[in-house]
Amino acid sequence: MRVFGLALAMVLACASPALAEKTLVQSTDAPKAIGPYSQAIKTGNLLFLSGSLPFDPAGKTDYSKLDVTTQTRRVIDNIALTLSAAGLTLDDVVSATVYVTDVNDFAAVNAVYASYFKPPYPARTFVEVSNLLRGVKVEITVIATTK
After folding, report:
1. Top CATH class, 21-145
2. For burial by CB atoms within 10 Å, which of 98, 101, 112, 123 has the most?
3. Residues lower than pLDDT 50 in the chain
């Protein structure tokens, strides 16, 4: 019986991240979700942010008409707003996935990205897609580690 108890304790210890409670994180300063999803979900010591688009939180500027550099800045600023709602900063980001509609925008997006993140940089994936919501050129999703 003692072996069973020890085995059960080990299984539960390994499974605990999967059993962690999901907590909604949202910022009233960041753009609101426009569908059935959350801005971010915290589970265990990780925070998963939904893809961030270059939407103006105040709704005054249509970023889809602006260049990819300006759009990338707005995206990362929006990410920072959501992270802030969880008491985190861009320094807490451990992984990022960048979606662009034109891979030739790599250098411009990369330059903006590098101005926001410091070494050690988050792990990152950079993907070209055929289209993004509302005709924007860039979307970024991140995972951050909580304190």
Report:
1. alpha beta
2. 98
3. 6, 8
Beta bridge partners of 143: 48, 95
What predicted TM-score, i.e. pTM, was given to this entire model?
A: 0.86
What amino acid occupies position 96? A
Distances (CA, A) of 138 to 64, 108, 128: 9, 11, 9
97, 127 contact by CB (below 8 A): yes
CA distance 147 to 137: 32
Amino acid letter, 75 = V
The Cα–Cα gap between 82 and 59 comes to 17
